[in-house]
Amino acid sequence: MDRFTAVERALRKSAPHALLETVRHALIGRYTACSVDLLMADYAMTILQPVNALPHTAAPVAVHTSPAGRAFGAQEPHVEAAAHGDPVTVHLPVSVRGDRIGILTVRLPPEICDAAVVRELGDVAEVLGHEIVVAERDTDLYLQARRADRLTLAAEMQWQLLPGRSCSRPEYDIGAQLEPAYAIHGDNFDWSTSADRLTLTVTNGMGEGIEAALLTNLAVNALRNARRAGLSLSDQACLADQAVYGHYQGAVHLSMLLLCFDLATGETEIIDAGSPRMWRVRGGKAEPIELDAQLPLGMSEDTPYAVERFRVEPGDRLLFVSDGVYDVASPTGERYSERALTRAMTSTRLLPPSQVPRAVLHELSGHRGPIDADDDAMIVCMDWRGRP
């Protein structure tokens, strides 16, 4: 049995809470590693938290100013230079289908650290990522490690509802982020892919705290229920509308963009039920996409929803934002506005989608200044490549 297969087998047999201990023991034994550490990205995606001193964890590592953060941002192994004869430190992305989870840091004797070994360790980190996703069904260890602060109960509910924060397939890349990460209320995003289609939902919830989270949970699960039953996009919206209205009788409502992309052609069905907005960058030009606004979900009984048609082309970038982005005011009362958002989209055009939401939200916080956010802010970015 080769050493990579041995490490992979050990991880698959490991207890859910013992993955770090297992990979550490395996890499020390099979690769003569000097040390092995696992860092998890926090909910705000600004720091990497060590998984070795829970529940309080050890000192975090900054994403933007550290070698580990460099590997995390680029999603490529990063090898730190070392003095002659000293162990070499290799930082390896721990990701699952484009969803960035953290970093595996391995220190190796310099005589064995070559390109082939780094590639093998990269494969080990990928296997570890898959095992972490599975293990999170049975242990809180890795979810605890993500926390730089305590989540509000509403935020706990919202993060558990999400599919991930990024996703990659040959046809597209998606990246998304919610703020304030530790106190999010009702904004949400969801996606699901099949062999031929991608369904994407962007939700702007109404209200605050638990009530907003409960409303969003009801609507998102109603949409999932309808989607998994094989219903059309318009019927999915109608079923979710009925679920929200049936429970709240029109007292509250929920805004949503619902999209279904044909992976082969780029033909897209869209239902605009409220305030989330859609932008496109094509040929270097950023522009809003105007859609026919329909009633938010749950506003009235038995609302019919009509589908619009749209086409994405290879090279297009789509950005979806909630009103917590475009309605944000500066200390002088100036709204963030379309001009500022256009500028942010242009300045981030070279970043991958997984990094765009964080970059735009950082600019948004600069615009807002020292004032605390009074609404959720959500950004979803998608790059479309399509099929040859």
UniProtKB/TrEMBL annotation:
Documented EC number(s): 3.1.3.16
Enzyme kind, highest EC tier: hydrolase
Domain of life, source organism: Bacteria
Ranges that cross the membrane: none
Signal sequence bounds: none
Single GO term (MF): protein serine/threonine phosphatase activity
Protein keywords: Hydrolase
Coiled-coil positions: none
Pfam families for the chain: SpoIIE
The protein's name: PP2C family protein-serine/threonine phosphatase
Species: Streptomyces atriruber
